Amino acid sequence: MASAAAAGAPPGPAASKSRKSVTGTRRTVAALFLLPALVLLGALVVYPIGYSIVRSLYNASGDGFAGVDNYKALFTDDGIRTALKNNVIWVVFAPTVSTVLGLMFAVLTERVRWGTAFKLVVFMPMAISMLAAGIIFRLVYDQDPDKGVANAVWVGVHDTFAPSSAFPKAHPGRESPLRPDQGGFITRATVHTGRPVALPLVGVAPDQLPGDTKKAVAARPEPGKITGTAWQDFTRGKGVGRLGAPDPSEPGYAGMRIEAVKDGAVVASTKAAADGTFTLPAEADGALLRLPASNFKEPYNGVDWLGPSLVTPAIIGSYVWMWAGFAMVLIAAGLAGVPRELLEAARVDGANEWQVFRRITVPLLAPVLAVVMVTLMINVLKVFDLVYIIAPGSSQDDANVLALELYRKGFAESQPGIASAIAVFLLLLVIPVMLFNIRRLRREVRR
Questions:
Q1: How many CB atoms are closer than 10 A to CB 30?
Q2: Residue 187 in domain
Q3: Mean pLDDT over residues 390-397, rounded?
Q4: Which domain holds residue 95?
Q5: HSE on the CB side for 339, CA within 13 Å?
Q6: Which of 286, 276, 219 is nearest to 253 (CA)?
Q7: Residues 219/197, Cβ–Cβ less than 8 Å
Q8: What is the pLDDT of residues 3-14, one digit of tens each?
Q9: What does the buried/exposed string (b/e) look like for 106-145 if buried means 16 or more CB atoms within 10 Å of the residue's CB?
Q10: Does 326 lie in the same domain as 206?
Q11: 437 or 326: whose pLDDT is higher?
Q12: Quick check: is 109 in a domain?
């Protein structure tokens, strides 16, 4: 009985010590395993933070104590204040738009058979580096519609509803019967029925003329009507043309608008035919013929996406293009864990799809949405590559952010003290977001 009791008794201190002695003291082993990570953490994180804090208290040369002067510059320097304002815009809009798009994509792709392929396409930009994305969007936002995709689309839509003029560079040549008038041109003398009118112009490249243009023809007189020709009074090559009269090689101005003006009022108007000829009714007798400014307006060249007013929203658009896929994947993973019976019960009770989405889906996804938002907020506080690459030199000051200003102060302007102060300030901005995330994770663990 004693031996059985002894066998069932818990091991004493001696047995416990003998078992520990196989691997040594457990805390020592743990410390040895953690030591390489702690060394790296100290060398790559703790030391740089400490050095940046100390360096931010010294002047540019590092041999004089500046106190908080470098931190005062954060709120007095115009460049830093612009960067701070832009960072606020980034933190408010970039994570919000990316998360909303990610939520929409995740919910809608559940209802289509090709949802997986769509998710793959949306997530693909995450495989591209910020550098490559910046180069891509620098080309996308190019001002020239022949190069920039954004302006090519914009100009195409604009010209569909408001076509541009085909004669933006046209102007009267030597000894012309036309003179300037309110952005267009008007005849120097009045016109009369039965007398053909010549309206010669120059300055339009042959390849820029309308596609239906034909060779100019001299207008024939018609009783009771005003006739004439508007054409390119310039002969290419070595041939000698007749000034003020259509030659066989000279094209007509197809579609040129002509107005008859009396006492400042338009009494008749018409458009030139493909060969440049036109006809006006008898009401135009005794009027001046005007080529209105609409014939000569410059072609629409699109939007200056990288100009001072739009450069920040344009760069945020490129960021959303990259990170909306990240948000979509995380939200889709959370959506897969939503109990389907709750959604079906709501539908059975009469809720429409919008009510199901707003009152059930979104509240159940709130923890995932918080993770995405916090992650993107920390990410945009550090944004540098996109702004540095996409914004041209003329607009970089307007697109400035804190990370870019840190680089400029530290390397381009040789002010490491202020650069260190910006780095510390960025750290202080990130800490509250990190604390919020830690508290949220702890609450999730308690549940």
A1: 10
A2: yes
A3: 92
A4: 69-153+305-446
A5: 6
A6: 276
A7: yes
A8: 444 445 555 554
A9: bbebeeeeeeeeebeebbebeeeebeebbebbbebbbbeb
A10: no
A11: 326
A12: yes
